[in-house]
Design brief:
Blueprint lengths: L2 H14 L12 E7 L4 E10 L2 E10 L2 H14 L4 H5 L3 H8 L5 H30 L2
Antiparallel strand pairs: 1-2, 2-3
Length: about 130
């Protein structure tokens, strides 16, 4: 079995048996987006403790790549500071996946990152407005 085959099996396992799927009641951060090219949908819910991620879950549907990359991303950000989360880039997500991703599948692989960052930026922006009274 090649390394690529092992990663493909890992992705299918994450798709079939996600560990962070579901929703959170009273989530402080909620964000959702759709990949119109293939219909993937991701919604992410986050509860924070101060400025760190306390709990995180996602829901949605889509291909194995979008679901597995979101699962891997969420697992990697548990307990992290929101500023650290803002700095995660697409290369880091693609590295977590560990397989080559075609140009067509790139949006699938990065949808979770897009949704997570959207939620974090909105949350931090709202906090700034509260603090500085804009």
């Amino acid at each position: 079995m090649t390394a690529e085959d092992m990663y493909s099996e890992m992705i299918l396992d994450l798709y079939r048996n996600p560990r962070n799927k579901g929703s959170l009641e009273n989530a402080k951060i909620k964000a959702r987006d759709v990949n119109p090219s293939c219909g993937d949908i991701i919604e992410i819910n986050v509860n924070v403790n101060g400025e760190s991620i306390k709990e995180i879950r996602f829901s949605g549907k889509g291909c194995a790549i979008s679901q597995a990359s979101t699962e891997l991303l969420l697992e990697s950000v548990k307990g992290k500071n929101l500023v650290e989360v803002k700095n995660i880039n697409k290369e880091q997500v693609l590295e977590m996946l560990g397989i080559p991703v075609s140009a067509f599948r790139l949006k699938c692989a990065l949808l979770g990152l897009k949704v997570l960052k959207l939620g974090v930026y909105n949350y931090l922006g709202e906090k700034m407005e509260e603090e500085y009274g804009n």
